[in-house]
Structures are given as C-alpha cells and as structure tokens.
Amino acid sequence: MYKELLGIPKDHVFVRTDMKWDIGKKIDIDTFWYDEKDTADHIVARYVVKVTKFVYPPKKSLISFNKYTPDSLSLLASGELQH
C-alpha cells in the first residue's frame, strides 16, 4: 500500500525493517521503517511512515512520511499521503 502511495517504481523492492506501536487514550501512532532497494539490491532510500489514528470521533487517520538518503543522514522529502 505505502509503496504505491509513495510512488516507488514497480521494479524496486520496498522492505519493512522495523515497526513500533504507541497506544494512547485518544491517539494511536504506528511507525514503520522501510528500505527502498533497486533491482541490484542496493538501498536507494530509507523511509519512516507514521500512521496516526484518532480513537474518538471523527475516527480518522493521517499518514505522514519522511524519505532519507541511504545513510539516513539527510532528509530528501516529507509530507502527508492521501489514502
């Protein structure tokens, strides 16, 4: 799902490397870490995708992302994903 939303090329692999769930009284936050690999299996970017779910009405969710260089030192892009 996130691969398509982020516009990652179909021939690249999108691998989840870690995840964390933070459960609160009003908001749940799921954080996922991903590596984008090219056809030669080289990491070309790293992503942090955060899904914020509001427990009470209007019970909506927001998906945000940060895209980093392969060494995770520089931020390349960030924003919210429309789902």
Quick structural overview:
The mean pLDDT is 94.
Q: What average pLDDT do the residues reach?
A: 94
| The number of domains | 1
- Give the N-to-C terminal Cα separation: 9 Å
Largest sheet: 5 strands, antiparallel
Helix content: under 10%
Order of helices and strands: HEEEEE
Strand content: over 45%
Determine the oligomeric state from the structure: single chain
Structural class designation: mainly beta
Number of helices: 1
- Main sheet strand line-up: 1-2-3-4-5
Contiguous runs where pLDDT drops below 50 for at least 5 residues: none
DSSP strand tally: 5
Brief descriptors of the model:
5 strands; mainly beta; single chain; 83 residues; five-stranded antiparallel β-sheet
Write up what this structure looks like.
With 83 residues, the chain is mainly β. It has one domain (4-81). The protein is built from one helix and five strands; from the N terminus they run H-E-E-E-E-E. It has a five-stranded antiparallel β-sheet. A hairpin with a 3-residue loop joins strand 1 and strand 2 (27-37).
Topology (SSEs and partners):
Layout: H1 2-6, E1 13-23, E2 27-37, E3 43-54, E4 61-68, E5 75-81
Antiparallel strand pairs: 1-2, 2-3, 3-4, 4-5
